[in-house]
Amino acid sequence: MLTHLPAQNVKSLPALSMLRGIPEAQDRTIVEASSGSTVLSLGIIARVLWGHNDVNAYVTNKKNPESLNLLRFFGITPHLYGGLAQQEPTDESGIMCRLRRLTAKRKDVTYPGQYDNDNNWRAHEQWTGPQILRQLPEINLFCTTVGTGGCITGTSAYLKSQKPSIRTLGVFNVFGDPTPGPRHFQGFNSCGFPWEQLIDDFAEVASVDSYRMSMHLSREGLIAGPSSGQALRGLLDYIGKIKESEGLASLSDGATGEVSCVFTCSDLPYQYLAGYYQKLGAEEFPPIQNKARLHPHHRHISYVSS
């Protein structure tokens, strides 16, 4: 439950680690190509560490007003850019390369660079991996969604160093069908982190299944967002395939026969609520009773998908 960290998302630890690695950032403008967890964590933690209030998010112009207002609520300044919503870190015309060039020209600007800053994945090697192993030493399978690749790289590096038999499953978006946070597998080789020798298998999950599983988790008291639902859906699908093809003996504990799995809950659902009603059918939500009594100012709002 990475949502129990201070910024309530998976990026709390990488943000802390990256900021500690660039102490001069406390006197500079901080910029990051992020519209969600990373820049929110940077904004909160920079303020807590240093009283810093000049954090800037470079955000696709396709983001909805609610997401932009969330950034502003936390004191973060959004800067909109055009083009693809999910850009490759190595694209010379993309926002990440543009921010690298900006910081090379201006000494008053710092770009932590979540996609190529090793303090991103090392934070999970230092903290997330040890926490998991202490809580579940019998772990056989670790599963997480893959965005920057930091969590899966760092956590797996630690877990496999302590227990080489642990299998790692990376869960990705279906190409052209994004769930907020994770990326699609095609083109992920642009990630500079040493993930390839650490991921044993990968799965792809459609966004509608990610949102639905997230909603089921939340209704059962494990309040978690779309990428968390994607991780669990991918894990269950993967275990089902292994069971059908070769049986679960390769994943199970030799003494108990149990398969002990960990998946990450990396985000919360609240900032993505509109997506649940866009992706899922009206039959998945309780109807609003006495809807005719809605205040006239609210009658134009679509409360569920049709």
UniProtKB/TrEMBL annotation:
InterPro entries on file = Cys_Synth/Cystath_Beta-Synth (IPR050214), TrpB-like_PALP (IPR001926), TrpB-like_PALP_sf (IPR036052)
- Database matches in SUPFAM superfamilies: Tryptophan synthase beta subunit-like PLP-dependent enzymes
Q: Which domain of life is it from?
A: Eukaryota
Using the record's annotation, list all stretches that form the Tryptophan synthase beta chain-like PALP domain: 6-245
Could you identify this protein by its name?
Putative siderophore biosynthesis protein SbnA
Q: Which organism's genome codes for this protein? A: Madurella mycetomatis
